[in-house]
Amino acid sequence: MRSRSGSVSQQPLTVLFDLRTRGQTGIWRFGLSLLRELIHRDTFRLVVLIDARQRNNDWSALGEVGQLLIVDAPEEEGFYRSSPWVRSFASGSGAHVFFTPNYLADWRLPIPLLYTIHDLTRLTHPDLQPDDSEMRRWYGPTGDGSIQREADGASESSVNETRLLDSFHAANDAMASRAAAIAVVSRTTAAAFVRTFPRHAHKLVLVGCGVDSQVFGSTRPAGTTRSSPGGRRGRYCLYVGTAHPHKRTDWLVSAFEQGVWTVCGDARLVLAGAHPEMFADRGYQDLPFVDIVARPNDSQLAELYRNAAAVVTASANEGFGLPVAEALASGSEVIVPDVPVFRETVGEHGHYYDPCDTAGFAELSRRALEEMLPSLARGYQAPSWSQVADRVDVAIRLAGSQRVDRSGEVDGREHDRLSTKERW
């Protein structure tokens, strides 16, 4: 292809962008925001894989771009997304790179793989894992060993292992072995990965996470009355996310009830998320101080942030903590446990408490409801999706320079070209 100046320009890389996720969680929002930015740049030919659950989305909102193709892919097979159809499609599509914002991918892909690790909570916090019933609900049968059988043969270490944790470790090792590059969203996640899989550390590319400033960038006007989305009187604290065990929502709800609601009778705790059934499973909707907001869109979420007395979380571990970053960008104070990832991503703008200190959490929450918290959100500089796309662009080009051998391994020689900023 020849440019207007007469010089020969290279054809753009074709990227299979796998947007399939299990619900509209943080990973889905990360992927969709990144996809919008890459489409706007128009530097890659993007083939986007979606699933049946996403088929009815309004994809026209992504805009009219010549180098975009959306493909309705069959459901992935199993917990680890093994899919003969996707492997066949990737082989015949002419794609140079397979990219997914997810932490699970088919390690048998015939083209270079770039996948994203948000956190390694399953491996770093094995005591905070879903029980068998929750695993079956989310991922299908597990007690019969189906997940373990998927991981058998993934690496030599998986042979004869029967525990889910062992098979998950083996599968992550297999994906890392066959990946051309691995995107990570924080230095905290990168450090956990290096401790767990040190021989793959050279493949990491720090891409970070972003905030849509057009949606979450305006602060709440002074003097605005905060009221609970449930239509009841009273100011509210807001939690955004799921109810997976490492989120410690049971602790959060109990601490709010004992230390906040019993003292401030009109105080509300609003739980918002893409999976309200997880809150229902725990009976939160029956508590007199809780309001649940199911599947809020971005504009609704921004309004929740702006009107909240504070955004609260009790999570033991996160990859980045996108809701907290969005809340700060919206001008809301954030009350967070003192764990490494929040020190990295929130810094001096967070109100910290010891993760086990119920009284400390309750005191901060009461002060927020009484509008007595010092303003720490002011001055927060939210990372942009443009910055994230810059780094993902580097990772995609790095992955595209690799070659997959018959065993599925990649040589990795191009990783030495990464700049210090791009390394984790």
Q: Name the poorly predicted regions.
A: 1-9, 154-162
In sequence order, what are the helices and strands, one letter per element? EHEEHEEHHHHEHEHEHEHEHEHEHEHH
Classify the beta-strand content into a percent band: 5-15%
Number of helices: 15
Strand arrangement, major sheet: 3-2-1-4-5-6-7
Fraction of residues in helix: 25-40%
Molecular structure report:
- There is one protein chain.
- The protein has 424 residues and is α/β, with parallel strands linked by helices.
- It folds into 2 domains: 14-210 and 385-417, Glycogen Phosphorylase B (Rossmann fold, 3-Layer(aba) Sandwich), CATH 3.40.50.2000; 214-369, Rossmann fold (3-Layer(aba) Sandwich), CATH 3.40.50.2000.
- 34% of the residues lie in helices and 14% in strands.
- It has a 7-stranded parallel beta sheet. It has a 6-stranded parallel beta sheet with strand order 10-9-8-11-12-13, with helices on both faces.
- Strand 6, helix 7 (187-196) and strand 7 (204-206) form a beta-alpha-beta unit.
- The longest helix is centred in the N-terminal third of the chain and has 16 residues, at 26-41.
- It is globular, with a radius of gyration of 22 Å.
- Residues 1-9 and 154-162 have low confidence and may be disordered.
